[in-house]
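Changelog-adjacent note: as of this version, every example in the card shows the full chain rather than a window. The one below runs 86 residues end to end.
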Amino acid sequence: MSWVLDHTGRVAYKASWTDSVGIDAALEDAVTLREKKVKGEMANEFYRETVGIRLTRPEGPGLLGGERAFEDSRLVAERRAKATAS
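Full-length structure tokens:
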């Protein structure tokens, strides 16, 4: 889970998966909003909700880590298959 809080403690970004592009955009928005308010410019924040996409490996769903994570996931799947077959 990733969170970005603005200078007031308000949640500016919350995601169930860390996404650097989304975090960068939220930080930029939070800084821009703060700068505009300090200058007395009109600026209003609003709530939005989106669904993001993460591409997975063709070898299986949810395998997004490096080679070590992929190998660990493969070994766990093999052990489960053997335990089920026994």
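Structural remarks: Helices lie at 20-38, 67-85.
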